[in-house]
Write a structure and sequence with these properties.
heterodimer; A: mainly alpha; two-stranded antiparallel sheet; 11 helices; 2 strands; B: mainly alpha; 17 helices; 1% strand
């Protein structure tokens, strides 16, 4: 029983990071209509930025949080202006291929600049643990979970409570009508894209003390984020949060009962089942 | 009159396709001959991919799965039971057909984005299964095919026989593709790619047409998988069934011209040699090769999403008209 509870909670903790990595993808899909296969690459870039800042200046990822987020926002902005803005009206398959190519470029860019080595950030906190009754938690994981969930909820509140957030929701419901109501559609697209990349960057930064950075680290999180987002109903931010937590728990239990090799197989299987039986997501209305 | 005939039947493109077989005989060494083999093989594979995804405009980003089924089925039959890869190739094709029937049956009706994601998911699941069932597939270690040259083993000395074999494969797939373009099925697929709703209203049986094309595409890709395994003589799950391979099918097809019979071949004739030579000359810097390929794809998508085939056809046409004019002067 104790072990089961431990497995459950560690699943929820990973799930928090998955949720944060996925909300940006859901936002970009919902507002801009882009299926961004390069999403995970931004997570990878943020991990490398955290690593290099730590290596050069000694600032740990939590101290360099602000610099990192600004850098991710700038990278997101440049991507949108240089590439994405040109294909907003193109065919969906062209857009998907473009983000796929972008992911290839960014991955190989990382491989070129920083080699395939695993790069760890070792700070005092890395192996620190917290205790609660019979349960043991790794401190960076607890921190990551708390920050990730707060950021995801902040995004949700932003969408619900602010004018710009309402504009984004309006666009995701009907772009043309939103434009007729006087919403600057391009600027909102750009903002949504930048928020999306910044949030996934934050996820990368939170991961960096507990997970090594390497060029293809983003790819695995990309597929994961896609599964989460489909579970959550593709363009729904709250759906992505719940989907992330769910995937975290499933992965954790599959790893505990069937072995680490089957973790991936478990959520891919769930993914296909959802695609076939509930293509609007677990919580979506048909 | 002759000119009309030429362009109506894509004769120039056929001449390029058929004539390309003489190239490997003039190449100075094994290194360049290897590039020729890869060019033919990838041309065939990209054309196979194009049969479904190109005409329907519905991307499969999981076709490496069928490449893997073809490669693993023939190799396992050969290594465990000594069954000739020629038969193994057919067995792999049959298995791929079954897999495509099951996968296609469940996912083809999904809407665009969901379909694309499901193809990736299936390829990933297959990869995980191949890695984890170590007793059968040797897992991540991969399979090594011993070098025993014989026609029955589909293994030869030198590269030339492989070049001929992969060229025949390419020509067969190309013939099927050209035939398809002019068939009822082909027209249905193109109509579905343009506007599914409209096509269905006009009486196109979308599920049936798509399923047939999907299975054809999977089987032909799987044949290519067997050729790949017999040529490289070493296969492992992460390299055969990788997303990179799936993307490469698409890259070649889109560079040449998506949804055209000759486009993927032209794409491979240009990009495969360039990519291999790049890898050869700048292989010291890992990543640079993939970086350049990705950049090429981005540039094509942004500025030439129709590929280079339309341009090429225009070029032929211009060349021909000029020659005709100068002919008049003489």
């Amino acid at each position: 029983m104790e072990q089961i509870l431990q497995v459950l909670i560690s699943g929820i903790f990973s799930g928090g990071i998955y949720a944060l990595a996925s909300v940006g993808l859901a936002l970009i899909f919902g507002v801009v209509g882009l299926v961004n296969f390069a999403h995970g690459e931004y997570l990878m870039l943020a991990m490398y930025i955290a690593y290099w800042i730590f290596n050069i200046s000694g600032l740990d990822p939590y101290q360099s949080l602000l610099i990192n987020l600004v850098a991710m926002a700038v990278i997101g902005y440049i991507t949108f202006k240089v590439i994405m803005e040109r294909v907003l009206d193109s065919d969906h398959s062209i857009q998907m291929l473009l983000t796929l190519a972008l992911s290839m470029v960014l991955q190989n860019f990382a491989l070129m600049c920083w080699k395939a080595d695993y790069r760890n950030i070792r700070i005092d906190l890395t192996n620190d643990t917290m205790h609660l009754g019979f349960l043991t938690f790794n401190t960076p994981r607890v921190l990551a979970f708390l920050i990730a969930i707060s950021a995801s909820i902040l995004l949700y509140l932003f969408l619900q409570k602010t004018f710009t957030g309402a504009a984004m929701r309006a666009i995701s419901q009907n772009g043309k009508a939103a434009q007729l109501m006087g919403i600057n559609i391009k600027r909102t697209y750009c903002l949504a894209f930048v928020i999306g990349t910044t949030l996934v960057g934050l996820a990368g930064l939170l991961l960096s003390p507990i997970y090594p950075a390497y060029p293809t680290v983003g790819a695995s999180f990309s597929t994961l984020a896609f599964i989460v987002v489909v579970l959550g109903g593709l363009s729904s931010v709250p759906g992505a949060i719940v989907g992330g937590l769910l995937i975290g728990v499933i992965e954790s239990f599959a790893g505990y009962f069937a072995g680490a090799a089957y973790q991936q197989a478990a959520y891919f299987l769930l993914f296909i089942l959802v695609l076939i039986f509930k293509p609007n997501g677990l919580f979506g209305r048909s | 009159m002759i000119r009309k005939l030429l362009f109506k039947q894509n004769l120039v493109l056929w001449v390029i396709a058929v004539g390309s077989i003489i190239v490997p005989f003039f190449l100075p060494n094994k290194y360049f001959q290897d590039i020729a083999v890869m060019t033919f093989l990838w041309a065939g594979l990209a054309t196979s991919w194009n049969l479904y995804s190109g005409y329907c405009k519905r991307l499969s980003i999981g076709h490496a799965a069928y490449l893997g089924i073809g490669a693993y089925t023939s190799s396992l039959l050969y290594l465990n039971f000594g069954i000739s890869p020629w038969i193994g190739m057919l067995a792999g094709g049959a298995l791929s057909a079954v897999a495509a029937l099951i996968i296609g049956g469940t996912t083809l009706r999904l809407k665009g984005t969901f379909f694309v994601l499901s193809t990736i998911a299936f390829a990933e699941i297959l990869k995980v299964i191949t890695i984890t069932s170590k007793e059968i597939t040797a897992g991540a270690l991969g399979l090594m095919i011993p070098f025993k040259p014989a026609f029955a083993n589909m293994i030869w000395h030198g590269k030339i026989p492989y070049a001929i074999l992969t060229w025949i494969y390419m020509i067969i797939v190309l013939m099927i593709s050209v035939k398809l373009e002019k068939s009822r099925l082909g027209y249905s697929l193109i109509a579905l790619g343009e506007n599914q709703q409209a096509a269905e209203n006009l009486g196109v049986n979308s599920t049936k047409s798509m399923l047939i094309a999907f299975i054809m595409s999977a089987v032909l890709t799987s044949f290519g998988g067997t050729l790949f395994a017999q040529y490289v003589m070493f296969i492992e799950p992460t390299s055969v069934m990788s997303l990179t391979n799936s993307v490469n099918f698409i890259l070649l097809a889109i560079a040449g011209g998506l949804g055209t019979a000759f486009g993927p071949m032209i794409g491979s004739f240009i990009l495969t040699p360039v990519s291999n030579l790049l890898r050869g000359y700048i292989g010291g810097i890992s990543g640079l090769h993939g970086f350049i390929l990705g950049m090429v794809l981005i540039v094509i998508l942004l500025f030439k999403p129709d590929g280079i085939l339309p341009q090429l056809k225009q070029l032929f046409r211009n060349l021909f008209t000029k020659r005709e004019k100068s002919g008049k002067g003489v």
